[in-house]
Amino acid sequence: MTAGGDYLSGRFARQSNQIARATLTGGLEAWEKLAAQRNYEPKPVPTDRLDLFGGKPLQKGGLKLEVAYRDFPRGDVRRPGDARFPNPHNLGWYDLSPAEARSFLPADGKQKVSDSVFRKLAITTLKDAVRGQMNGWKEHEMTEGELHSEKTGQSGTVSTYKLTGHAKFAVGDRTYEPALFGLAKFDSASGEFTQFQLIASGQRTGKGGANGRETDLGPAPMGVGLQLYGQE
User: Which DSSP state fits 10?
Assistant: First the structure.
């Protein structure tokens, strides 16, 4: 589509490399024809810096997390896949407000992260989206789960926290039972997280949505990783 809503080219959902190439080529040809008909002239390319993330704008004290989905090695096969899905992985985004993010910051010792904060994160992100599109879980499909945060160190104004937990999801033959491990660092001087990583690792089964699991019903190991945007 053009910015004005003119149709150029398109295909629905996932397509082969050949069809994708033909779709892009056809769209470019349609654009060049339209531009010639309307006497469009090239303009300078904008140099404004673009936000390289999805979701909400960055919030001071909040968390913008990059979410990565992938299958874990199965025996000698390090990147399980097939001809249709070689080296499969997927990416997404998740935002926590400053108030939600504070649930990960106990003053001392170990405490449970707010159920409402963790369950919202879990049902939204801990899903089988490695090979395609998949909705989050419904609330009742998360049958178990909790996450704890423990303050383990202090260096100047930066506090370090260890994250541990588990979750269990089930509906029909589709399940996921991950353990969770992570690390967070928060700088009280700047009021910002300087590091956040949370890994979910466990067995999945079944298929759903458009997640491409028709020939890979499991059980098989899968991981979801959440990391602070911009973190090296």
Answer: -
Q: Distance (Å, rounded) from C-alpha 122 to C-alpha 228?
A: 16
User: Which 3 state secondary structure label does DSSP give 183?
Assistant: strand
- Largest Cα separation within the chain, whole Å, is 69
Residue 67 near residue 93 (C-beta atoms within 8 A): yes
Which two structure tokens, joined as six digits, stand for 96? 């926590």
What does pTM read for this prediction? 0.84
Q: How far apart are CA 184 and CA 116, in angstroms?
A: 19
Residue 9: closest CA among 40, 42, 37, 21: 21
Closest C-alpha among 84, 121, 69 to residue 215 = 84
Nearest to 101 by CA among 56, 144, 137, 138: 56
Antiparallel, parallel or unpaired: β 192-205 and 110-112: unpaired
Q: What is the rounded CA–CA span in Å between residue 178 and residue 56?
A: 27
Under DSSP, is residue 23 helix (H, G, I), strand (E, B) or coil?
Answer: helix
The domain segmentation of the chain, as residue ranges, is: 1-50, 63-228
pLDDT of the chain along its 232 residues, tens only?
A: 888 899 999 988 777 889 999 999 999 999 999 999 999 988 888 888 878 888 888 999 999 999 999 999 998 888 888 877 788 889 999 999 999 999 999 988 899 999 999 999 999 999 999 998 899 999 999 999 999 999 999 999 999 999 999 999 999 999 999 999 999 999 999 999 999 999 999 999 999 988 989 999 999 999 999 999 988 7
